[in-house]
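Q: Could you fold this chain for me?
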Amino acid sequence: MKPKGNTDMKKRRILFNDNWRFTLTEPDSDGKTLENAHWYNVEIPHDWLIGDTANLYKSGCGWYEKYFTVDALGEDDCYILIFDGVYMDTTVYVNDKEVGKWKYGYTTFSFDITDALKNGENRILVRVNHKYPLVQRSRNIQKRVAQKNLTPSHR
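A: Sure. Below is the predicted structure, expressed as structure tokens.
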């Protein structure tokens, strides 16, 4: 049986490594701590632990922020955010909506962010809660745009 609607899928991969901002807060902190945080520009991959060699094993909560624009969301669009690896204990938000958590490191994971997007400017916020003796690392964040007809059971 053939599904209804347009089953042709147009795929487009966009490397999302540029134009991120980063700030470091205390371990287990939440988004309230970001109001007065000092942000600085970073490119992915980024490892905040090697920035201060005197404190290579310091625990902290790293926050990565990126703004991007979606010109026109189509009803058949599907936006997948793919991470090649973030170490570890990661929560991803899009426009202040939690889209997923990943508790493992050095493994690829992805989240469908379509329902959190809006036409115009969008914000991704990635929270990485590092506690010694673990190590933190972010690599190659990508946004995959796929336009296809998805039924609710396939989302």
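A (continued): The beta strands are 10-15, 20-25, 40-42, 60-70, 77-86, 90-94, 97-102, 109-112, 120-130, 138-147.
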